[in-house]
User: Fold these one by one.
Assistant:
Number 1:
Amino acid sequence: MLTLSCGILLFNEHRQLFLAHATGGRHWDIPKGMADPGESAVTAALRETFEETGLVFTGDELLDLGVHAYRADKQLHLFAVYRPSAAVAIEACRCTSMFEQAHTGKLLPEADAFRWTTLGEIPQYCAKNLTRLLTTGLDLSHIVTRVVPTRKNDPS
C-alpha cells in the first residue's frame, strides 16, 4: 500500500536546508510525517514540523512543491518555506513527537538534534532515498530562488 508523508523544506538566507537528526540513527531528515485521518497535506506538514522541531509556520507562507516519489511504499508531499537563520534558534528546537525504543521501552523524541546544511552536504547527512529526491528529483536551486528573498527585499 502506498502511503503519503507530508513535510517542509526550510531554507535560510545562506541557501541552507534545515535538518533534524533521527534519534538512534545516523541520518538526518526533513521534518515530515503522516497525515491524520481527514487532515490536509499542508496541515499535516505544519503539525509534523511543529511536533518535530517546535517551529511554527502558516499555510500562507508555504510554497507547495507537490507529491514526489520517495520509496516504493511511500510518497512525499512537500512544501518549502524561508526563515532567516537568526529567526531559527537551533538550540531552542525541541521534538515532542515520541517513539518507544525497542529494546528498553523508553520513550525517546523522534529527533534529537538540528542543523543547517548546505545543498552539497545533503548526501553526507541524509539517507539514500531522501538524498536521491533532494539531489535529482527536485531542483533545489530553483526552489531556493523562489522562497529565499533577495538581499534588497529580505525582511531579516
Note: The chain is about 20% helix and 35% strand.
Number 2:
Amino acid sequence: IMKRTFFLLLYYGFAQYLPDSYSPVLGGISNRVRIFCAKRIFKKCGKVSAINRKTYFGTGKDIVIGDYSSIGAYCVIPNNTIIGRYVMMAPQIHIVANNHRHDDITRPMCLQGSQCSPPPQTIIEDDCWIGVRVIMTPGRHIKRGSIVAAGAVLTKDFEEYSIVGGNPARLIKKRK
C-alpha cells in the first residue's frame, strides 16, 4: 500500500503535468514516466503504448489495461475499469463511475447517495477505438473491435465490431 501511495503522489504531483506524450522533444520520456507510475498503481498494466497527460484514474487500484493500449490526455477513468489489448482511447473520454439516487422526492438528490455500491464495472474489450470526448454511463461493456465515434454518449451496450455514435449513441454500421 505504501508503494502504491508513493506512485500515486508521484503521478498526481508531478508526472501528469509532464508534456504531451506526442510532443517532439520530451514526449517520449514523459510518456515513459507516466507508464512507469501506472505499472505500480494499476492492478495490472501490460505493455502500454501511451498514458497521456492529465489522465485521472482515482486510486487506480482495480484498473486493468492490456498490451499496446493507449489513454488520451484529460481522460477520466474510474477504478473498476478493464481495458483490453490494442485499445485506442482519444483525449477527454469520461467514464462515469456511478449515478446518484433520485427516487425519494422528499430528500435532496445530493443526500440520497449512489445508486450502486460498488459501482458497476466498465469493460472495453480488445481492438476498440474510442473517439474524442466520448461519455460512457456506468457499467458499459464495449465489445471487441468496436468503434465509438467522437462526442458519442454511450448509454447502452452494442454487439462486437459495431460502429456507434450520437447522443444517445446508436448503431451506425457493423465492421463485419
Note: The radius of gyration is 17 Å.
Number 3:
Amino acid sequence: MTAHPPRKTPGSDRPLVRKLQQFLALTAAEEAALRGLESVVRQAGPRHELTTEGGASGTAILLHKGWAVRQRTLRDGRRQVIDFLVPGDFCDPSSFVAGRRDFSITAITPVTWSPVQPEDLLRLLSGSPRLGAFFWWLEAREGFFLRAHLVAVGRMRAEERIA
C-alpha cells in the first residue's frame, strides 16, 4: 500500500483515523465506521492492566491517549516487553481467534482506550471490505516487525542490536 498525504477531515482528531490516513484515503463512511469502535471509552492510570495475560481473549484494545506496553511475565516474575503502544494503535484485532490471551497490556502513562468486541469489529469489516483488507495488511506488517525483532534478539550480538 502506498502512503497518501493526510487529509484534514472531521475525524482527523481521532488517532486511529489519523494513523490509517497515512496509508489510505478514507471515505466519510469509513471514518464514521471507525468512530463506531469507540462506543465505550475508558480511562486508566499508570501500571493499570488493560488486559491480563492468561485471561480469556476476545476483546481488542484501541488506544486513544497515552502509552502502554504489551508484555509477557515469566514464571520467575521477570517480564519481557513485547512492544509499546501509542495513540492510534489497535492492539490484537484478531484476539477473538485464540482462547486465552498470551500477553497483558499495561498502561505506562494515563491512558484513554476502548475495548473493541469481536462483533463490533466483524460488523465494521463486513461493512467495509477495504478496511478489512487494510487491517489484514497492518497485522502482516506487525508480524514482519516482530520477526525482525525476534531475529535481532535471538541471533545478533549486542553490538549488532545496538547498531
Note: The beta strands are 42-44, 49-51, 60-65, 68-73, 79-85, 90-91, 104-107, 111-116.
